[in-house]
Each structure stands twice: as structure tokens, then as C-alpha cells.
Amino acid sequence: MTDVWGTEVRVPTEDGTADAYVARPADGSPRPAVLCFTDAFGVRPTVREAADRVARAGYTVLVPNLFHRRGPAPVVELPGFIDAKARGEFFTRLRPALRELTPQRATADAGAYLRWLAERPEAAEGPVALVGYCMGAGLALRTAGAFPDRVAAVAGFHGGRLATDDPHSPHLAAPRITAEVYLGHADEDPSLPPEQIERLERALTDAGVRHRCEVYPGAAHGFTQSDTASYDEKADERHWAALLDLLDRTFRPGTST
């Protein structure tokens, strides 16, 4: 197995400096870059472990604190296990930070993260892959639309509010996306009802985006997050297979199974 080196880094943005976690194979050689947009719970031990797993597969992974304007992660303290009660209390406290992260600010931040990766010797030259979870899935789609020349692949899992009537809805980025897109939806997710899934699929199809959208049966919103009550081991392993397959097909054609 590939040894992994992980550390905390600082990424300059237009609004100060974002703290982030970076993981890469320990040999230090340039590897294809993956920019990860977390769920609202942010950078924490389980997220670092997931980044290490992607790095172990041969990639350089950057996981920024999306709410860096509020300070370093965690901007709201989290328990070791997030149940329904802890989730409600967390979002009550996080609401100001969520309002502060407007689509315009999120896109500007994404540009800064992409520039940082382009300047790092451990990140290979060329376009990157994006992966997003929950709110991060929408951020990944918007970023792919805003920086089409920098993004080769997008993976999003249990994303919410991906195809709403909001003028900044993520599905509206579809005409500008040139990357391949994979989306794994939670079957039991009130934040992404069937009509939104249909609207998103139609937008990607009409825009000619190479994509695959799958609904994971019985899975709840947040099914990949092992430190939450929503975790679903079977759906999580399916997510890992889909993600690593997409990365391999994008950066190492012919290696996927």
C-alpha cells in the first residue's frame, strides 16, 4: 500500500487565508490533484481519513475549510458522533457562516484553491478532479462551470438542493461544464426530491455533459459520513468504487475495472 503524507496548510484567498488539509503519496512525486468540498460539518478526522484514502490511491488531495472567514476549522465544535440532536444544534450555530458563503464568494474561493494546486510541485500539471459531499456537491458543480478548463472530472454524493428555482442553483452551471460528472444521490433525501433529480439530469443531458446519475436505494442524506447517524456502509462502499473508478478513468485511462 502507498504510504501517505498529510498535513495542514494555508491557502491564500481574496478574503484572507483558508486553512486546509492536504494529503499525498509520501514519495512527493507529482500526482493528479483532487479538490474536495466537504459537507457543512467541515474538515474533521473522518474527512482527513477519506482524503488519505484517495491519496493512497495515487492522488494529491486538498480539503479546504469552506468557512474560513469564520476562523479555522472547526468553526463550530462537533461531538465525536453526530446524531439528530447534535445535527440540529450544529446547524443553528452554523447558520451565519452558511449565509456568508454566497455563490460568488464560494466561486472566488474555488479559484484560489485551484491556483494553489497549480503552483504545488506535488500536484501534477493539467486539470483536476472535484469531489463534493452534501453542500459540497453543489459547490463542485458550480466550480466545474466556472473553471471548465481546470476541471476534468466531478463527483458529487448525497448533494442537496442541486436543481431548485434559485438563480444560482447548481444545475444551471451545466452548459458551461466540460468535465465528466458522476452523481450518487441518496434515495431518502428530502433536500433532493425526485423532481430535482429529474431537472438536474435533464440539464446535464441537454448541455451534452458526459455524466451518470445514480440513486442509492435506501440511503439517507449523508450516507458516506461515518461519524453521523446517516452513515450507510453499503452505500459508502459503492461511493468509493464509483469515485475511484472516475478518477482512474480520468487520469489513468485503461486501469478501471
TrEMBL record:
Record domain Dienelactone hydrolase: where: 19-249
GO molecular function: hydrolase activity
Keywords: Hydrolase
Keyword Membrane attributed: no
Top-level lineage group: Bacteria
Alphabetical list of InterPro entries matching this protein: AB_hydrolase_fold, Dienelactn_hydro, Dienelactone_hydrolase-like
Name of the protein this chain belongs to: Dienelactone hydrolase family protein
